[in-house]
C-alpha cells in the first residue's frame, strides 16, 4: 500500500534520521549541553564577568550550553542525513550502470 516504503527502508538502512529521531537526539543533546554549560560555561562567564551573581552565571551558562548542544545535534543529523542520501544515490547509480553496461 505504501508506495514509498522501499525508499524509506533504504534510507533508514543507509543511516538516515527521521523527524522523530532528530527531535529526540536534539532534546538529548540540549539536556546534556545545559548540564555541561551550567558548570563549565558558568565558570567561564564568572571569570569573564565576575560582578554577575552566581545564579546569573549558572543561568547564562545553562542557556549557552543548551544552544551549543542543540546546534551540534542539528549539524550532526544534517551531515548524517546528507551522507545517507549520497550513499543511497551512489548505490542506485552503480545499479543503473550495471544494468545498462552489463558489468
Structure overview:
The chain contains 3 helices and no strands. The chain is an all-alpha fold and 103 residues long. α2 runs antiparallel to α3. The mean pLDDT is 88. 85% of the residues lie in helices and 0% in strands.
Topology record:
Blueprint: H1 5-14, H2 19-48, H3 54-101
Care to count the β-strands?
A: 0
Instruction: Work out the helicity level.
Output: over 70%
Helix/strand-derived class?
mainly alpha
**H and E string:** HHH
Q: Largest sheet at a glance?
A: none
What is the CA-atom radius of gyration, in angstroms? 22 Å
Shape descriptor reads elongated
- The low-confidence runs, each spanning 5 or more residues with pLDDT under 50, are none
What is the tally of helical segments? 3
Averaged pLDDT, please?
88
Give the terminus-to-terminus CA distance.
33 Å
Strand coverage percent: under 5%
Summarize the structure.
The protein is an all-alpha fold. About 85% of the residues lie in helices and about 0% in strands. The two termini are about 35 Å apart.
Structure keywords:
3 helices; 103 residues; mainly alpha
